[in-house]
Every structure is written in C-alpha cells, then in structure tokens.
Write a structure and sequence with these properties.
- The structure is a single chain.
- With 399 residues, the protein is α/β, with parallel strands linked by helices.
- The chain is 45% helix and 17% strand.
- The chain is built from 17 helices and 13 strands.
- Helix 3 links the parallel strand 3 and strand 4.
- Helix 10 packs parallel to helix 11.
- It is globular and about 70 Å long.
- The chain starts with a strand and ends with a helix.
- The structure holds adenosine-5'-diphosphate and magnesium ion.
- Adenosine-5'-diphosphate binds next to helix 6 and helix 14.
C-alpha cells in the first residue's frame, strides 16, 4: 500500500517528536522528513515532494506563512496543513490565503491529527485523480554497489549514504540503501530517518519476502532514497545469515535501479554475499600505514575469490599527500589504481552527519561534495576502473 508521505515542520523538537510518535501508530502514514523553520521546510519539500506538510506558523528564520506561500507555488502537488494555536485567527486567515488547505488547532490529539490528514489527503487525491496516470510496468536494470573496507572509520558510511543520495538526485531513479553493518550500523542516524523496522524484523518474514512486503520495511529519506536500517541492538546481528542477505538483495534488484550497501569492516558471510552479488565494489581506504596494510590484505582476499579487477574501485578518502605517503607508492603497494579521491573536510562532513542533511544536498559547493557527486556520476555512466581520466580529476579537485 502506498503510504501518505508527511513532512513535519515546527521549531520545537519536542513538538516534532510528539507528532512523529502519534503518527507511528498509523500504518497508512510515514514521516519522511522534518524541518525546524520555513526555509528548511521549503528545501525538504522541494526535494522530497511529500503528500502533506504539517506546518507550524511562528518559527525563526522564516515563518510558516511565507513557507506555505512558496510551497504552494513551487510544489503544488504537496498539501499544507497549518498547525496554529487557538485564537490566532489573523495568522490562520493569512495561512489559508497563502495556500494552506486545512488547519489543526494546537494542542491536538492523535485522533484529530490522523483524521485531518486523511480527510485532506482524500480531498486532494479526488481532486487530482483525473490527472494521475497509471505507470506501465517496467523491467528494471539494477546495479548493486557495495561500499566496503577492511578497516573501520575510513568513511564507508559517509560515502555510501552520500552516494545513494547523489545517485537518487542525479537520476531520479529508485535507490535503496542497505545497512549491512549489522552490529554497529549508523546509516539511520547519519540520514536522520526514524526507524520503525529493521533488517532483524524483516528476516522474521524472509520466506514470504516479495517486493511488496519489502516496501513495508524500507524507510524513506527525504531525498527519495529508501533505507533498510541495521538492527537496533548489536546482539541481533548473529541471527542474520548470508541466505537472508541474498534474498534481500535479490528482491531489491527487482524493483530498485540502484542498491547501495554499507558494510562493516569484515569478511563476515553476510558481507561476502553482498560483495559476491555486487556489480561494483567501492573499496574505501585512507592514507595511513595500518589502513594500507589491511586494505592490501582485503584486496588479496578478493583476488583469491577471483573477483575481476574492474569490479573493485579503490576510493581514497581524506586524501592528502601531506602526511608523507605518496599516492603513487600507495598504488604500487596495492597493485591497484586509485579510482577516486575524496578530500578531508571535517567541518562539512561532521556537521552534515549531525544534522542528518547529507552534504551532497546541502553543501554542493564544497570539494568533498563535488568529489562524491563525481563518483556518483561515474557510477551512473558506468565508468570502470580503467576508464577514468585521473588527470582531469586532479585538476578539478586540486588534489
Ligand atoms: N572526507 C572526510 N573528511 C572528514 N571527515 C570524514 C571524511 N569522511 C569521513 N569522515 C569522518 O570519519 C569518521 C568515520 O566515518 P564513517 O563514514 O562513519 O566511517 P566507517 O563507516 O568506515 O566506519 C566520521 O566521523 C566521519 O564524519
Ligand atoms: Mg560505518
């Protein structure tokens, strides 16, 4: 069943959390994003094109009325419901003339909330019914990309999440992101999506798993990427076996154009399955000796598994020659070319992780974002290990 996709906008975190909690009880709805002021609300709405925006009126930076005005012009398929405190008649009138379709008086009960959303959604749906065309079924050509390393803390999660978001934005195709770091996965935190179910819940129904059931277990990030989160507790990881992972990837391949998989730093059977089933492996390294040693052993394992060399792309993160190791020496040691470079930029990377806003969306002017967007582009254009012009890359990123 298609869920009603909702964005919650309020400057008080507690209010946003209360609303999210109220909505988790209703299976017909899914909160796909949140914002704390009008400006963020516009940004998220343009990206995510939700069905409904629940909009507070008084907020810093930009108020809810201005935001409603902008949204109703530039994202007409989204319907705004205003949340106002009783008595704010003048505001309410302004909000409605700015394009809000409905309002809720604060405080409201869960029942009020759900009823108003359903009523508004159905009204809008009826209004638009004529213009909705059924899409023809299409055969999907899917690519599976695993982001891997034999070392923790090198940037696998940073790369996989920003890569998934970049590809989704660039291609407008369906992208799934699977967190296969089964013990300590942090994709859900990195992307700030609210987790209802995880891969642990999914495997309980693994024998019935089909595309439709799969959809129930994926959560939507506001970029459009659909996420399968890692278990909530590390000890749940041991119940997940390679056969489960195989079935999950197979199912996703049937309905997602790109399946991006984040992994833990190990050759655990589940990770091996994912590597086996991948069209491409992004092998992430940094330029320090312990990491290089581990990456070298990892590449040796892959060679003994007879993975073709072009399946593996070495991505050098936090790339810099200033700590004494030259790129050339690194390549000679690994007997692999560096396929892509990502510069270090803690300010951008860490702030974006803390906010749950991927830097490839919000900080596109930075070198680090440009590097990841470049990687996404090469993946989309299917540039293999040999086919890339590194000279040009160096010129662009100044590294
Ligand atoms: N290019 C980068 N510049 C600066 N910090 C980075 C960069 N890439 C990753 N980091 C930081 O390094 C740490 C580890 O990254 P993470 O993606 O969680 O690695 P992994 O998933 O491999 O353990 C995080 O704090 C992250 O913010
Ligand atoms: Mg990680």
């Amino acid at each position: 069943m298609e869920k009603i996709r909702i964005v919650v906008v309020d400057d008080t975190e507690e209010t946003r959390n209360n609303i999210k909690t109220l909505l988790t009880f209703d299976k017909r709805m899914e909160v796909i994003g949140e914002a704390e002021n009008g400006e963020e609300a516009i940004f998220i709405t343009k990206e995510a094109r939700p069905d409904i925006v629940l909009m507070d009126i008084n907020m810093p930076v930009m108020d809810g009325i201005k935001a409603t005005e902008e949204i109703s012009v530039s994202v007409p398929e989204t319907t705004v419901i205003i949340m106002s405190v009783q008595g704010e008649h003048e505001y309410l009138r302004k909000a409605m003339s700015a394009g809000a379709r409905e309002f809720l008086n604060k405080p409201f009960s869960g029942e009020d909330l759900v009823r108003t959303i359903i009523k508004t959604y159905e009204m809008e749906f009826k209004r638009r019914e004529h213009s909705i065309l059924a899409r023809p079924a299409e055969e999907i050509k899917s690519k599976v990309i695993t982001v891997f390393s034999t070392k923790g803390g090198v940037g696998k999660t940073t790369l996989s999440s920003n890569l998934a978001v970049s590809i989704a934005r660039m291609t407008k195709k369906k992208v799934a992101l699977v967190d296969l770091d089964l013990q300590f996965g942090d994709i859900a935190i990195m992307l700030n999506v609210s987790v209802k179910n995880t891969i642990s819940d999914l495997i309980k129904e693994i024998n019935q798993l089909d595309q439709e059931l799969m959809e129930d277990y994926l959560v939507t990030h506001f970029s459009g990427v659909r996420v399968l989160p890692a278990p909530i507790k590390p000890e749940y990881a041991e119940y997940i076996a390679s056969a489960h992972v195989e079935r999950i990837i197979k199912t996703l391949k049937g309905c997602y154009h790109y399946v991006i998989i984040d992994t833990s730093a190990s050759f655990h059977e589940t990770v091996l399955t994912s590597l086996d089933m991948s069209d491409r492996i992004m092998f992430v390294s940094t330029l320090d000796l312990p990491t290089i040693k581990n990456v070298k052993s990892g590449l040796d394992v892959m060679e003994s598994l007879r993975y073709p060399k072009e399946k593996i792309s070495v991505v050098l993160n936090k790339a810099s020659e200033q700590f004494g190791i030259k790129y050339k020496d690194f390549e000679n040691t690994l007997k692999h070319n560096i396929w892509a470079y990502i510069p270090e930029d803690s300010q951008t990377v860490i702030t974006s992780a803390n906010k749950g806003f991927p830097f490839v969306m919000t900080r596109t002017e930075t070198k680090v974002a440009k590097a990841v967007i470049g990687i996404a582009q090469d993946i989309v254009e299917e540039k293999a290990a040999a086919g890339k012009d590194k000279g040009a890359l160096k010129k662009i990123f100044g590294i």
